[in-house]
Amino acid sequence: MKFETTFGETVKKLREDRSLTLREVVAHLEIDISLLGKIEKNNRKANKGLIEKFAAFFEVSSKELLIAFLSDKIVYDVLDEEKFGTEVLRVAEKKMKYLNDKKEKKK
User: Fold this and answer.
1) How far apart are CA 27 and CA 106, in angstroms?
2) I want to staple 14 with a disulfide (CB 3.0 to 4.6 A). Which of 5, 43, 58, 105 is the partner?
3) Could you report the per-residue pLDDT of 66-93, keeping only the tens digit for each?
4) Predicted TM-score (pTM) above 0.90
């Protein structure tokens, strides 16, 4: 799965690769058609429960869909920081390692 695209674009591609209409997908997932359209256009975020439903329906890894979703959240938070966005992500990666190491030492 490509992680360069947004979560919404990923869902849309999964749907289109299977030649499914919006109506077919929403009928199976039991969600509103406008919700799926907004998710595909990145105008609305999915929740973890819906991500699990997408993964099961499209027979893809829920982990990969969750990574795509969570990475969108992070990127959109720093996207407007044109000068520092990439640097912020590098520092955040180091902080994650630090915090995970600290958590492991407590165990």
Assistant:
1) 47
2) 58
3) 999 999 988 888 887 778 888 888 999 9
4) no
